[in-house]
Specification:
The chain has 17 helices and five strands. The chain is mainly alpha-helical and 352 residues long. The structure holds tryptophan.
């Protein structure tokens, strides 16, 4: 059976390099495989669970994220990019799934735990936020998804989805299986699964202010690269340097290819040679940073230009998103009908 692929992002800001290596790159590769269906959902309703008092932010970023996808290489002829809130069936499904999950199970979800801490929600947890993994299970199951390309922090969500599926099957025993069992799909390159921030913090994110955005201009990219955290003890060029925790090398792990060495740094054949020299001493941070800057400029220039092009016809993109959402809604509706049938909620049919 061919894969049904679904993934998504919350529209709370422009996409950055963490999104690019953690998921966008994978999606672009996947769209060239022989799949059955491929959906990318802009999770505006999920974004509201911690931005309910900032609707404008979520609303404005829907179009930004859509344009980021397309400019980063998502092919709209192959992939259905749609808006979560425009598929109301997802929320009806969520209501039924909520009965199958306990509060304590949600509180044990590692991603939720972490996010509650970050948002200062620990003492007073909004119900919508705590239960978004259940709504995410609906997102995934509604389309009978088999493959969910995501970053590492979404693994607990896919796990939770499989539990909801099991529980649904155990409780309602559908005669024919309704859903597929979804698998997460991670980038094999470890560093890509959780790209650290420019400041050396564990994760690149908008809220930490340590991100390079796909649409940053040339000058901003260079400034950010030059400010990246390296090894604080590497003071003189001749000092031996540390690679571990050094953000510039972390990014080179994620982005540098041998062809970049040929083009921008021909004194070294590959990253291992560069690292060895840095460890030994005699290699300055500036040289390594300028190399990284060249690589990132080469990657980001075409993305930025494509986005400027798309911005001239924003209405076309809105139209595409709405049409795609209608198509997605029909698929979700069919699954919802099957669910209700299995649950014995087909009262209206009984009347006929
Ligand atoms: N939780 C994801 C994020 O934080 C967004 C998301 C919502 C998602 N529904 C999904 C991802 C379904 C994959 C599949 O960005």
């Amino acid at each position: 059976m061919k894969e049904i692929i679904l993934t998504g992002d919350r529209p709370t800001g422009n996409l950055h390099l963490g999104h690019y290596v953690g998921s966008v790159q994978n999606r672009v590769a996947l769209q060239n495989t022989d799949f059955d269906k491929f959906y990318i959902m802009i999770a505006d309703t999920q974004a509201l669970t911690d931005n309910f008092n900032n609707v404008d932010k979520v609303k404005n970023n829907i179009i930004q994220v859509a344009m980021d996808y397309i400019s980063a290489g998502i092919d709209i002829n192959k992939v259905n990019i749609f808006i979560q809130s425009q598929v109301p069936e997802l929320f009806e499904m969520t209501s039924y799934f909520l009965n199958l999950v306990t509060v304590s199970r949600l509180q044990r979800n590692p991603t939720i735990k972490e996010e509650l801490k970050q948002r200062d929600f620990v003492k007073s947890i909004p119900v919508g936020f705590l239960t978004y993994p259940v709504s995410q299970a609906a997102d995934i199951l509604a389309f009978k998804t088999t493959l969910v390309p995501v970053g590492e922090d979404q693994l607990p969500m896919v796990e939770q989805t499989r539990e909801v599926l099991q529980s649904f099957n155990n409780t309602y025993k559908p005669q024919n299986p309704i859903f597929n069992t979804p698998k997460a799909f991670l980038n094999e390159n470890k560093i890509c699964q959780r790209l650290p921030g420019l400041d050396g913090k564990i994760k690149m994110s908008k809220s930490a202010g340590n991100a390079i955005y796909l649409c940053d201009d040339e000058k901003t990219i260079k400034e950010k690269v030059m400010s990246a955290y390296t090894d604080p003890d590497h003071i003189r060029v001749s000092d031996p340097g540390k690679i571990e925790g050094n953000i510039v090398f972390a990014y080179l792990d994620a982005f540098a290819k041998e062809e970049h060495f040929k083009k921008y740094l021909p004194d070294y054949r590959n990253l291992d040679e560069l690292k060895a020299h840095y460890r030994k001493g005699g290699l300055g941070d500036v040289k390594v940073k300028l190399f990284l800057n060249n690589i990132l400029q080469e990657l980001l220039a075409p993305i930025r230009e494509k986005k400027l092009e798309l911005e001239k016809n924003v209405n076309d993109i809105y139209n595409l998103l709405f049409e795609n959402s209608l198509k997605a809604s029909l698929v979700a509706k069919a699954t919802l009908e099957e669910m209700k049938e299995a649950m014995g909620l087909n009262y209206l049919k009984l009347l006929k």
